[in-house]
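Title: Request for sanity check on Low density lipoprotein receptor-related protein associated protein 1 prediction

Description:
We are preparing a figure and want to confirm that the structure record we downloaded matches what your pipeline produces today. Could someone re-run it with the sequence below and paste the raw structure tokens into this thread? We only need the token string, no images.
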Amino acid sequence: QACKTRGAFLFLQCLVVALCFGAGVMAGKYSREVNEHKLSGSDGQTVEFRIAKLNQVWEKAERMQLSPVRHSELHSDLKIQEKDELQWKKMKVEGLDENGEKEAQLRRNFNVILAKYGMDGKRDTRPLESNHLKDHDTKEGDIFDDPRLDKLWNKAKSSGKFSNEELLSLKREFQHHKDKIHEYNILMDTVSRTEEIHKNVISPLEGDAKEHVLHQKHTDLKQKMRDLNQGFERLRKLSHEGFTEDSEFREPRVIELWEAAKRANLSEDELDSLKEELRHFETKVEKHSHYQEQLELSHHKLRHVEALGDKEHIKKNQEKYNTLAEKTREMGYKMKKHMQDLSNKISQQGLEHNEL
């Protein structure tokens, strides 16, 4: 009887250890993704990414005066680029992407990242990025660098239709649209320069394949322009009519995905399922925004402590800031990957319905 009891106890111990190990494996999935490729480069230094050109960009960014939030955003963008490029390498080995469409898109995405963070060799004429702490510094009446947006915003703000909380939500949507305009301009500039290079260089892509890649670039631009027009129309309607009681979401990126889903000819069941997934995604977006705010505050506090010169306090605040920066990057990557997955899912489901 004692042997049986001891045997059962040992079994339970093993089960608990196995469950804890499983939970640890799941919890450490991102950390493993982050750390497994921190290998030594040729000079013996630890590298951040598994692709050399991404490390070069990151090393350059470390020397630039990027704000903490922007620095964190760059890391997330490079992580997404890394994931996509490694997936493409597997596709290539399997003989997929014969016409070079995916490769051209990856190159374009990389050029967009360089332009977005002022690393493309061109003088960046954009104003410094706005964030939660800097909104009050903006000149009143001209905050979106776009006459149509500024006019619409000023009209909405003086209409008396919006509470202070609703005005903050509306401002976030306007800011999101401004960012989308900037992304479109970067993509258009990147495509123009790529086409100039195509004209002057003998490309391995000839005939139909080359034509297909160029066509795909213009398709991307047209789609982004359609998205911009639909986004502006939504802002115009929102500014005139105000928020409705049945507004499903608050975050601009989530609203954009939901609007795309409603246009994608999905069934009621698919829309209900997607709505639930978007609610989870919105929580993730809001949590990431909160961490970005905390990171900015932590950075200000660190600078303040450094000015006082107390080494113990500096060390303590630096450790806190580093932990927060790592967490913000991790959440940024997860959020962008989730957004990418949702966008692909909506496009794919819409395509399947249109083919039926």
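Thanks, this matches our download. The CA atoms of residues 115 and 186 lie 7 Å apart.
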